[in-house]
Amino acid sequence: MRLHGLVGLLAWLAVSACGDREPRAPAAASTAAAAAVDGAMCKEHGVLEAVCTKCNPALAAVFKAKGDWCAEHGFPESICPICHPERGGRPSTDVTASNDGPADGTKVRLKNKDAARQAGLQLAKAVAGVAVRHVPATARVVYDAARVAQVNPRVTGVVRAIRADVGTAVRAGAALAVIESADVGADQARLAAARSRSQVAEASYQRASALRAEGVSSQRALLDAEREREQARADVASAQSALTMVGASRDGSARYTLTAPIAGVVTQRHATIGRLVDGDDTLFEVVDPSVMWIELDVAEADLALVRVGQPVAIALDMLPDRELTAELSYVAPAIDLRTRTAVARAPLPNPDGSLRANLFGRGRIAVSDPRAAVWVPRSAVQRARATSVVFVRIAADLFEARRVAVAAVNGERASVTGRVSAGDDVVTDGSFLLKTETLKESIGAGCCAGE
Q1: What are the pLDDT digits (tens) for 130-161?
Q2: Do the beta carbons of residue 390 and residue 416 sit within 8 Å?
Q3: Residue 126: pLDDT above 80?
Q4: Is the pTM of this model over 0.85?
Q5: Euclidean distance between CA atoms 211 and 218, whole angstroms
Q6: pLDDT value for 40
Q7: 268 falls in which pLDDT band (50, 70, 90)?
Q8: Residue 362: phi, psi to the nearest 5?
Q9: How far apart are alpha carbons 198 and 373 in whole angstroms?
Q10: Are 447 and 82 in contact (CB under 8 A)?
Q11: Are 283 and 165 contacting, i.e. CB atoms less than 8 angstroms apart?
Q12: Secondary structure (DSSP) of 85-130
């Protein structure tokens, strides 16, 4: 048997697509990673980028030689976006719709060693690197615990006025409620008495000091007067401190004002006018939502790979068209006995208020796998029906399709698993043309002939 001749996109090149290996099932890869390396569209001309003859003029001769050419618009007739707008600039047959694909080891041979240059094939080295994969986890939005305040009464009393309600934006120190308290009344009376004693003690000290200066009184009498004065001053300071802590009014009344300890939004109010409250009652909750937490439930099997500082991508059900990115700041040291998961946390700025507590979604934590990885340019990975393939040069005029699974994508590089090794020459530009030659009924597909 000989390798099949190319009658298609490579027209003047004799190309073969011969599966001299048994097909191998590709390793499982995430749908998202596979989609990331699929064929991109040329935004300027509206056709598949890999076969855009405007951006790659050298391809024009390929299609002309085949007879697939629209001279009026300068595109292959089969994908001309003007003549066939319904095809969207792609081949008429969906090359990803079938469950089969090119067998692992399918070879494509060019007519001569110079044919690769004429066809515009570009090569790059597969390189070794750190394996990166994404750990999935259920995600939910919660308040930043350091930005949540539960406001309780300072002392027992009766609510006399409400100054803020649910939804009110407050600053730190803003009034929330006015409470009348017998304890505050008692402290006000104690303060008044302490001030009176302080005035008397001050006068006694001044008199004792003058008598001592005249030699009439003893030094001990002066010291006793000074001690009484300092004790009276301490009683005044103590009473003032107690009243200041609860926010008592300065008019001497038995009322005090309950204030917000932080700036934020009132999310709960349990205070009502006339209610008797004490220190165990939570009357208000104030939350600063400018920064939220994303909590992720990480499966026990993945915990060995998860570390503080790793990036995480979050997709929330309420924001389907928006992917959020954050960095892990905490991984719990304990596992939930029921779910066998551990909580990981990442702070997320929320300047526009779009994140709300208790939103659910999905998270993907980028982790480093201790196994070695092989990285290739994203353009080297082609989706061929239900499989992903990379074309490896094994001779100057011979290329082999090798099935791979895309483990991760990082910028313009993709981590793949399969029969691709570090140091292999992989086809980047032009790999789409080689792919189509391995698929029947796709644009430019070759025919099979045997001897």
Answers
A1: 777 789 999 999 999 999 999 999 899 999 99
A2: yes
A3: yes
A4: no
A5: 8
A6: 67
A7: very high
A8: -130, 140
A9: 81
A10: no
A11: no
A12: GGGTTS-SS-TTSSS--PPTTEEEE-SSTTHHHHTT--EEE-EEEE
